[in-house]
Amino acid sequence: MEAAIKRNISNHERFNFYLFTSGKAVSILGSSIYTFAIGLYVLKITGSALNYAATLMLSIIPMVLISPIAGVIADRIPKKWLVVGMDLLSGVLFAVLYFYALTMTLNLAIIYISTVLLNIFTTFFGIGMEAAKPSLVTSERLIKLNSLSKLIDSSASILGPIIGGMVFALVNIRLFILLNAFSFIFSAVTEWFIDYDLNEDEVENEKLVRTSTKAFSMDLKEGWNFFSHNRSILELFFVFVSLNFLLGFSVNVPAPYMINQLLKMPSTSFGLINSMFPVGLIIGTLTVEKVMRKIEFRKLLISMNAFIAFLAGLIGLPIVLNLGNNKNLIFYATINILMGIAIAYVDVPIMTILQNEIPKKLLGRVLSLIMSLVKVILPLAIISSGLLIGILPIVVIPIMGASIAFSYSMFLLVQLKKQKNSTLDEKTKIA
């Protein structure tokens, strides 16, 4: 009887994996393609780089502002309603946009409004899906599900611009909008059949959430209190912060400036170098599960944070050594692949730890707070780096950010070792 129950759960898990993959892939890829293609469309009809940049910014701002609200709602209503409902609303949005485009010209106001709405729906969808993950599979399969989710995100980051560029060049914008409407509705139908209560503990937690009568602000405060008073969660949060600051400060601004302005490398080389990062992410997500079986989660993500800092500190090396174009290309391509792998080795463990340590009834709220606060760090780091480029030698800037992130990682590794030694001493005393 017990073997039959386990076999049934395994079949349900497999079914959930298939449905999750198809549903999320269509939804995330659809959003990525639209964001890229509509940006090109704005650039074409206005000829303004500022309007193009504004379109891209409108895909980021809603995520920062809406995430905390999405987290509270994700904890107050069944995840199925949120996930399916958001994809359905995205499909309806594109359907309305299509019928509007049949009779009227797509102007900037309509494009901006639709972009904001799409990214609001996508933010709610993302938070709902992340909060639902622990209930889609048993805890033993959670790492695999997170790896699969990261693989979808990485693939979308590669395919979105490629397909978006092809769509923009070959397909009428109205037809593209209609295809997006159908894809989101297909995704919603697929996600409807996911078993969101496979993990039995989640069923109990959902009941607690559904009967809650707390005010919205109290729910948000409860999530903040758990986040701000949990030392373990704060530690993970600051790993995330240090990584995002490092990438924004030491990589996102200095690297393109060095490659394009100082080394004068061809644009084709720059494009090839950038394409290596998502390739590394995909390699990382395909191998991270095996690595996590051998190395303790926290040790892995802290070590990888230190490794990324080390790689970031090397970014200015070609400027100092005065290498040729071919060697520079190999150097930066290798750095980007290794960074992609290492970031996958940080993202998957950190998400798995958070999903296991945060109570399921608070998961949406706490995850959304972390994501929202981390997203604020990146633009601040980019602005700081951009300002310092005009003041300091550029090779110093990557080293500054890398030194901070590396020092913090070393501090955490020492703390982790102390905790393990303390635990061993306690066990020895008891024995």
What are the key terms here?
431 residues; mainly alpha
Explain the overall architecture:
The protein is built from 17 helices and no strands. The chain is mostly helical. It folds into 2 domains: 18-213, Growth Hormone, Chain: A (Up-down Bundle), CATH 1.20.1250; 226-430, Growth Hormone, Chain: A. The longest helix is centred in the first third of the chain and has 45 residues, at 2-46. The chain is globular.
| Number of strand segments | 0
Overall pLDDT level: 79
Percentage of β-strand residues: under 5%
Order of helices and strands: HHHHHHHHHHHHHHHHH
Could you give a short description of this structure?
The chain has 431 residues and is mainly alpha-helical.
Topology:
Elements: H1 2-46, H2 49-57, H3 61-76, H4 79-103, H5 108-136, H6 142-170, H7 173-192, H8 200-210, H9 216-229, H10 231-252, H11 254-262, H12 267-294, H13 297-313, H14 317-321, H15 325-357, H16 363-389, H17 396-430
Helix pairs in contact: 1-2, 1-5, 1-6, 1-7, 3-5, 3-9, 3-16, 4-5, 4-7, 5-16, 6-12, 6-15, 9-16, 10-13, 10-16, 10-17, 12-15, 13-15, 13-17
